[in-house]
Amino acid sequence: MNAMVPDRVQRSFSRSFQSYHDAAGPQAGIAAQLAARLTELGAPDAFETLFEIGCGTGHLTAALQARFDIGSATLNDLMPQAVETARAWNADFLVGDIRAVDWPRNPDLIASTSTIQWLDDPGEIVQRAARALAPGGWLAISGFGRDQFAELRDLGSESAAPGLCAPEDLAQALEQSGGGAVEVLDLWQERHRLWFRSPPDVLRHLRETGVNGRAGHVWTRATLAAFCDGYTRAFATDKGVPLTYHPVWIIARRRA
Predict the structure, then answer these.
(1) pLDDT for 23
(2) What Rg, from alpha-carbon coordinates, does the chain have?
(3) What phi, psi does 25 have (nearest 5°)?
């Protein structure tokens, strides 16, 4: 990945870190769904060790802690501010790019939501996670698919996260990681729309959640007016204007 990408993402999330938790309703919902699905698939009530990638403000951390007895946890994030999430849950904190830091040894659960799309090769992280799991360990990772923010793409935006992918891409990466050592239990995707009163409200949502982390666009009055006009003409309905979310996930288990 170009070094400028994580730098730009870090700057974007740094600006939005305080507003993210309350504004990121879709991300919170995905985290709750992912934790619930683990239970439905028969995950144990307790995990001795958890490694979470991209903990942020703690949506997934809280969802997992509510459903499972976690012995000890190591939380990772690119943002140093996320140490507060680790402190809140009495967890160890590992700051930095997940591809460059040293992972804890053989966790029983490796989990992540709404993070891998910022990597140019999310399959590589899924493969590494599969290899890192303890025997019998569980893997639950979500990202976003290629229709994420389809409206922005259709208007010519080039700020899409680099790792948008289908759940089948993640499953293929697992298959390439080492024979049949890891069993895929669930692949899932969904497309849904958030509705806003106007295009400026869409931009406000993106800014408050930091999810436009690759955008290098500098707005002027003229470009903002052109964007709002184009968005309204292309997508406005009686409900307002939409923004598409396209979450995907994979859940797998390493054979004992």
Answers:
(1) 46
(2) 18
(3) -60, -45
Locate 245 and state its tokens.
Answer: 């979310």
pLDDT band at 31 (very low <50, low <70, confident <90, very high): very high
DSSP 236: -
- 12 or 181, higher pLDDT: 181
Tokens of 61: 């951390």
CA angle at residue 23 from 21 to 27, to 5 degrees?
Answer: 70
Q: Residue 185 pLDDT more than 80?
A: yes
Between CA 210 and CA 219 the distance in angstroms is 16
What is the rounded CA–CA span in Å between residue 163 and residue 121? 6
Are the C-beta atoms of 125 and 53 separated by less than 8 Å? yes
* Structural domains present in the chain: 4-194+241-254 (3.40.50.150)
Q: How far apart are CA 176 and CA 45, in angstroms?
A: 30
